[in-house]
Amino acid sequence: MSTADNRGKPARRALLQAALAVPAAGAAATFLDTASAQADSGAYGRFDGVSPRFALAVLPDTQYLFDADSSDPAPLRETFRYLVSERKEANIAFMTHLGDVTEHGTRDEIELAADTFRTLDGKLPYSVLAGNHDINGSDDQRGDSAYLRAFGPARYASMPTYGGSSRDGYNSYHVVSAAGREWLVLALDWRVSDAGLDWARSVLDRHATLPAILTTHDIASSGDDGKAQLSGNGQRLWDGLIRGNDQIFLALGGHYWPPGRTVLTNDAGHDVHVHITNYQDRYYGGAAMIRLYGFDLARGVIDVETFSPWFLARDPEKRTPLEAETIELTGPTDRFSLDIDFDTRFAGFDQSVPPAARPASAVMPRGTVAYWRFDSAGLGGGAGTAGAPVADGKVARDLTGNGNDLTVSRLHSSGADALTWSNEHHEGQPAHASLRFDGGKSPDRGAILTTSANAPLNSAKFTSGYTIETYIKLPEPFEGDHAWMGILSWEGRNSEAGKTTGWSPDEPTCSLNISPERFIQFVVYAHRQDADPTSWSHALPVGRWTHIAVVNDGHRTVIYVDGSKIARNPTQESTGIATLGKPFVIGGTQFDEKFGQGFYGWVGDTRIVERALRPKEFLTPYE
After folding, report:
1. Quick one: which H or E segment has residue 305?
2. Of 18, 116, 146, 182, which one is least surrounded by beta carbons within 10 A?
3. How far is CA 561 from CA 471, 501, 539, 547, in A?
4. What is the pLDDT of residues 20-44, one digit of tens each?
5. Edge-to-edge, what's the strand order for the sheet holding 260-265?
6. Where are the beta strands (DSSP E) in 475-544?
7. Beta-strand (E) ranges in 390-446?
8. What's the average model confidence in pLDDT over 55-69?
9. How far apart are the C-alpha atoms of 203 and 185, rounded to whole Å?
10. 347-356 pLDDT, tens per residue?
């Protein structure tokens, strides 16, 4: 950080004897934009680009670790080893350095730093940008430099994320595939020129649907209260680039200390999070502190933590007091969470076309015994309009043609709004429609869909295994008494099947329910065993679609929620289902006074297959 010049340079020393494996940046063609970045693969493949959770590693000023004859790259090497070894576990997508790699920008310092970065090459894609201590002042039109020869476009050319660089070579961009979408990372010189700003705008224009993270060396400063404000250069970037480009939602800089953060409002009325990350004033020049931005698109948050892998790797009993107190920083500017509704925040520019509805024929694999969907194909002659009641007697066809059609009826004296049609749906659901159930207690109310008395499904035993899938969404807010509401069941009771286990003889032989804590409960009385193995999920979220899959391989049952296996799956032997020729029901369980509430929420496509499916075969496929 400190000053904008490099006063007091020491005599150059031979810090590194071996030549770099990185070619010089003299070939102008390497400065031109390349084709769009490809998915992370090959040597970079230990990363899950589909998971809704991933991490962005941010590395601030390392200049005191590369300071003439006092240079010590050991902390940075340990940070890089940590990122590589933990890449799969923490799902680290990318690392970005915020500038001031070195103290004086000498050839020897730069070469030692560049050699240290080779720890990452071929293992984790990254970007590096110039800070004021890495080059001789001026803007990105300064021409050739030791920094450019080591950290210019040629360094990134083989990375699967690399998209291209400005013609001068000091600005670059990467496209990172993570959480099932692409993210743009802009790495801008510490003093980007007007030409550099034009280049950055052109990159944003060419990737107009991608959320963007801007990284640069100097963007904001902060006081001890942690409240950041734009620096002079930061104000120029805000006025000339950030505020008018809604894609940029996160802007990261170093240069100043202490760290800080603020939230600004852009021209579209949306939040832009601006953060300072710099620990060079801390013990051992910051000891290559790393900050992890943990993106969690499922929860709508970014969890941020800051720590030193170098100190973390030390034997706890041998850590010095300064090492022990610096191993992790937990202040409000070092460890925090950002609440971001990603879909809403990105809606203004991400006009991606949602997946098209899939025909029923595409989602009926071998062994499918019943498949219901609530679009015009499934509701026989038209679904109506959103919010319109679905009348008693309406038939939801079993699209397999196996004769397991469902007929609508209302419980008790429920009104028309107990069952309405909706165009809401899970984003991975084949049909873009659902039914909205308004079941409840006090008074008891609801609606159900039931097979006919002679439907084949009523007596199916599934002794070789089965998969039962459905999509549900619980309302937000989740108001009223909805304890133990049923999603689906067979009407037969376990006492009628001669079962003696279980907490009540009136319990259905098979049912999928929601507990008072919003846990999924799947209870099944097996065809062969006198047992009632019950699976339990975690608490389901409200206001969000959930895919549920119950999979039995002929021996035991496992439940998956959104493709993830839940913890409380019993190992008890369970073969088949003790069906008794009684109707199958969607929208509730037993409907007497003891077991009686219709479902409250949305139900989408529902499918039953007479074999155990793998997650990649589910209605929404999961790897």
Report:
1. strand 301-307
2. 18
3. 10, 27, 11, 6
4. 233 333 223 333 343 333 344 445 6
5. 162-165, 172-178, 181-187, 212-215, 248-253, 271-276, 260-265
6. 485-493, 508-514, 519-524, 534-539
7. 395-396, 406-410, 419-422, 434-438
8. 97
9. 10
10. 999 977 778 8
Indicate the pLDDT class of residue 58, thresholds 50, 70 and 90: very high
CB-based contacts of 534, cutoff 8 Å, min separation 6: 521, 522, 523, 524, 570
Cβ contacts of 337 within 8 Å, gap of 6 or more: 301, 302, 303, 304
Q: Which two tokens stand for residue 552?
A: 């039995």
Share of the chain above pLDDT 70, in %: 91
Strand 212-215 to 248-253 pairing: parallel
Q: In angstroms, rounded to a whole number, what is the distance separating the alpha carbons of residues 551 and 570?
A: 12
Strand partners, 215: 187, 252
564 — pLDDT class (breaks 50, 70, 90): very high
CA nearest to 61, candidates 328, 282, 389: 282
pLDDT for 4 equals 36
Amino acid sitting at position 453? A
Q: How big, in percent rounded to 5, are the helix, strand and coil portions of the chain?
A: 20, 30, 55
Does residue 15 surpass a pLDDT of 60? no
**Sign of CA pseudo-dihedral 24, 25, 29, 34:** positive
Helix (H) or strand (E) holding 547, with range, is: strand 545-552
Q: Which of 291, 426, 501, 112 is nearest to 509 (CA)?
A: 501
For the chain, how far is it from start to end, CA to CA, in angstroms? 45
The model's pLDDT over 292-324, given as tens digits with 9 standing for 90+, comes to: 999 999 889 999 999 999 999 999 999 999 999
**Average pLDDT, stretch 542-562?**
95
Q: Which two tokens mark 579? A: 């069906």
Residue 12 clears pLDDT 70, i.e. is over it: no
How much is the average pLDDT of 112-132? Answer: 97
Cα separation, 374 vs 354, whole angstroms: 19
Token duo for residue 372: 């219901």
Using an 8 Å Cβ cutoff, are 363 and 431 in contact?
Answer: no
How far is the C-alpha of 557 from the C-alpha of 31, rounded, in Å? 56
Mean pLDDT of the chain: 89
